[in-house]
Amino acid sequence: MTPQQAVDLARDALMTSLMIGAPVLLAGLVVGLVIGLFQALTQIQEQTIAFVPKIVAMLLALTFTLPWLITMMVQYSHDLIAGIPERF
Predict the structure, then answer these.
(1) What share of the chain is helix, strand, coil (3-state, %, to 5)?
(2) Which sequence spans correspond to the domains of the chain?
């Protein structure tokens, strides 16, 4: 394995992990932003108010994107395993 192949492999792994984590993290970020804005406007400074809506939004995002996430993970695994003969 050449150094360039190792760098490409690491880059592909990082990009795949970012793509897999992005929908759930973005849902939590958007809901957290909306709840934070609501708390700032109403001057309610309770930390537990933001927790439940964020968890629910993240679970919903995970539920809706799960087929796509699994497809991405399987495709990455397939490409990784299929590339073993040409890397070594």
Answers:
(1) 90, 0, 10
(2) 3-87
